[in-house]
Amino acid sequence: MEFKNEPIRDFSLEKERSSIRKTLDSIxxxxxxxxxxxxxxxxxxxxxxxxHKNPWSPELMVTNVxxxxxxxxxxxxxxxxxxxxxxxxxxxxxxxxxxxxxxEKLISKKDFILSVCIxxxxxxxxxxxxxxxxxxxxxxxxxxxxxxxxSPQKTILLGEDNIYYYQPKxxxxxxxxxxxxxxxxxxxxxxxxxxxxxxxxxxxxxxxATAYEIAKCFWEVGIPKEVFHFLPGIxxxxxxxxxxxxxxxxxxxxxxxxxxxxxxxxxxxxxxNQSIIKKVICELGGKNAMIVDADADLDVAIQSILPSAxxxxxxxxxxxxxxxxxxxxxxxxxxxxIDAMDGLLIGSPLDFGNxxxxxxxxxxxxxxxKIQKENESFIVGRTRSIPTEGFYISPSLYEPPKDxxxxxSEIFGPLLSMQKISSFSEGIQLVNDSDYALTCGVISRNPKxxxxxxxxxxxxxLYINRGITGAIVNRQPFGGGxxxxxxxxxxxxxxxxxxxxxxxxxxxxxxxxxxRDTIQ
Length: 520
Ligand code: NAD
Known about the structure:
Layout: H1 14-26, E1 33-35, E2 37-39, E3 42-44, E4 49-53, E5 61-66, H2 70-89, H3 92-108, H4 110-121, H5 125-149, E6 153-157, E7 160-168, E8 171-175, H6 183-194, E9 198-202, H7 208-220, E10 228-230, H8 235-244, E11 250-254, H9 257-267, E12 279-283, E13 288-292, H10 298-310, E14 320-326, H11 330-342, H12 362-374, E15 379-382, E16 396-398, E17 415-421, H13 424-432, E18 436-437, E19 439-443, H14 447-456, E20 461-464, E21 481-482, E22 500-508, H15 516-519
Parallel strand pairs: 1-5, 8-9, 8-11, 9-10, 11-12, 13-14, 13-19, 14-17, 16-17, 19-20
Antiparallel strand pairs: 2-3, 4-5, 6-7, 7-22, 15-16, 18-21
Helix pairs in contact: 1-4, 3-5, 3-7, 4-5, 4-7, 5-6, 10-11
Bound molecules: nicotinamide-adenine-dinucleotide.
């Protein structure tokens, strides 16, 4: 079977807009979603629940999340140990078949899941549609990859058979972020599951309803609940418990740098009752840059900068945050960018014409407002018209001094910094002067400079003459180096290898007669 990326709908067409409208508008009737803890076949609600508000109408309580505790984890571990053998002993064909069915199940619930995600996150419809397609792609791609890449290798010699094969690692704790609650959640769970591991997942607090709807699709097609557990709750409680449990073999984490580094530290400690070396996959933040060269096509530059910096309000690990522009086009680009930013339509994602929405919650809103105030004297442009209610942050452009933290810390919001460069090589030097190495863009018509960028820029994903977000499964395996992550490259050919370990059988086949018992 050939892998094909899932197509996306074009919401500039009235028929596509009206087909999802009814579902989107019907969601508030279901508020608040009550999210249970799912331990094997048992579901339960905690006494205390954590509330998540809608980002554009914070008076609406979208989700009440149950809070899993260490004893819930212990129960999942015991159930997992009983069921692991039957799951890992299933044929790869069967597990891949189930994952392909998950893709079909997701598609059958597409408008509903997408709408839940929009109400939880404030994501625009097209952004949500693209993300949903990525979730489908992950299922299909990993299902096929497991069949094609992980089959046993035989080396048969005279008198000796050697078989090299892969075995799942055991219990994988998947701790996921809120900014791609459909794609990243699906991919991070589907990968380890399809190759025969147990998954215990801890979704982000903010997007537990979206994650729960997706988990249901896995169970509904026949992936046993005993091998895929859902433990919502607070990161520093249940997330930390998963990381430190002596029987969790792999931590599959995507999130912030501080949490990721603390997980790496904790997982390196081997407790007295532990007989495994934990593996940690950490996909962390970015401080992503773009160089606009002297001869750049400025139309391409503007079209690339706007969605990269302000799409989903800059809340993407791949978002553009540092812009280095050649002195020959600096002023022209700056003026055009400021004009273009002022034309951005900001408001709730229920109006499909809006290009920028609210940030995820009040905490982010207050953090970003503080950064805006601290950098007020460096601002050169902003989108002026923004709604007064809801967690809206105006997309803003700054020219901060070289020693400003605006150049170094991940902001995770729609705030972009701009600096003049005298040469393309200076741009490359500035791009690489960062702790992060996730995405980067180059807008240039000079083949020599493009080649220099390919050779010298340190980024997991380098994009030339286009935007720097929206990696597509199989076409652009995604993930960074340096402090951006351990280089898992989600949606790429090596991803599943992270959840298996190689084993070798060697058999001496020079027989010295048969034993009577075995031939009868
Ligand atoms: P976060 O680190 O706050 O939370 C991520 C997950 O970790 C959540 O489920 C959270 O509950 C859990 N968690 C929090 N504290 C924990 C602890 N002490 N132990 C165990 N788990 C804990 O990140 P976020 O705000 O959800 O996501 C935004 C961050 O994720 C940004 O930095 C962004 O760049 C990064 N991100 C990276 C990628 C990538 O592929 N590199 C993709 C998406 C997001």
